[in-house]
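We were asked to recover a plausible sequence for a given structure. The inputs and outputs are reproduced exactly as logged, with field labels preserved.

PROBLEM: sequence recovery
POSITIONS: 349
GIVEN STRUCTURE:
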């Protein structure tokens, strides 16, 4: 599993390395790219890292309060390093390839519509890069996906970057302040639109996500609620999505109920006894690059005698989601659509 910790969320244990991954869906990504182009994005440039400061733009200065840190931007950032994949995909979806000078920690196949641009960005590290490695890229902004992007014990605290004259932004799911909903996804997109001076692009992206989520939710309206267990990883104790995670909201929108919605964290450990007691009727399997493939996880669950009478296991009812689709980012509509089809197949013709 990833270390998705933040100072307000307890750390988690590492697990075995991955051996295979599943690709994202191309149709939705291509439709999104077309929509953004029609809204005035144009094709993302591939001219390489921006050579210097971005030009002044209308609507600045912009002040953003993010996870307890207040930052004022006098102009759009020109040299950005993203740590973790979902921030990178969000910036690319906003047509900001020309601002990106480095990324790190890819954990799923990149959305097909973004693949070429993503491949042109230097990968600074397979996991979180060191503070020194990030400094070598000479960024004016570091945008992290999980709280571990700014791990103080590894020398990457937000204060350390501030002291070096570099702004930081953390994906709002890891502020740890409250339960995350789709409204947070839309606000994250809009906030990045403000920071980079591309508000119209952000609104176009939000409108497309809202349209798709509303359509998927409407298709399952009135159907019986399906109890769902999220299996991220873990053998001795399952690591799952808690009540503060976006995953809980995605399941609700798709006509389900996270059986661990009462777990007061984004991700956390529970026990197999609790899984048995809560009798989930479906299991959402999070698929990503360092916890074993989705197929391996399904085989593991099916092989556990203690789980044999759990309805989801007995009926082999699994819905596989790339981890990046269950996080605050551009893939959340994919997750609602995939979950809705998996939980209520009769509602989608």
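RECOVERED SEQUENCE:
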């Amino acid at each position: 599993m990833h270390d998705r910790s933040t100072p307000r969320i307890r750390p988690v244990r590492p697990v075995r390395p991955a051996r295979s991954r599943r690709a994202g869906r191309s149709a939705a990504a291509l439709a999104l790219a077309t929509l953004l182009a029609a809204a005035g994005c144009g094709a993302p440039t591939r001219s390489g890292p921006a050579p210097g400061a971005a030009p002044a733009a209308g609507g600045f200065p912009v002040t953003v309060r993010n996870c307890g840190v207040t930052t004022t931007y006098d102009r759009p950032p020109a040299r950005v390093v993203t740590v973790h994949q979902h921030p990178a995909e969000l910036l690319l979806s906003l047509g900001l390839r020309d601002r990106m000078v480095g990324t790190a920690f890819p954990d799923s196949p990149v959305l097909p519509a973004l693949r070429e641009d993503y491949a042109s960005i230097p990968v600074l590290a397979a996991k979180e890069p060191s503070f020194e490695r990030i400094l070598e890229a000479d960024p004016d902004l570091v945008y992290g996906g999980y709280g571990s992007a700014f791990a103080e014990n590894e020398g990457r605290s937000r204060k350390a970057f501030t002291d070096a004259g570099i702004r930081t932004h953390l994906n709002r799911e890891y502020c740890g302040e409250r339960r995350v909903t789709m409204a947070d996804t839309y606000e994250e997109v809009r906030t990045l639109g403000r920071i980079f001076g591309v508000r119209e692009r952000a609104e176009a992206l939000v409108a497309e996500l809202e349209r798709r989520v509303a359509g998927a939710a409407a298709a399952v309206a009135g159907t019986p609620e399906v109890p769902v267990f999220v299996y991220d990883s873990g053998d001795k104790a399952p690591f799952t999505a808690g009540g503060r995670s976006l995953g809980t909201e995605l399941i609700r929108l798709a006509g389900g109920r996270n059986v661990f919605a009462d777990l007061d964290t984004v991700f956390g450990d529970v026990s197999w006894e609790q899984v048995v007691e809560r009798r989930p009727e479906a299991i959402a399997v999070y698929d990503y690059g360092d916890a074993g493939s989705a197929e391996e996880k399904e085989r593991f669950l099916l092989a556990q005698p203690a789980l044999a009478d759990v309805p989801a296991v007995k009926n082999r009812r699994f819905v596989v989601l790339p981890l990046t689709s269950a996080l605050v980012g551009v893939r959340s509509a994919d997750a609602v659509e995939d979950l809705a089809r998996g939980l209520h197949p009769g509602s989608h013709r």
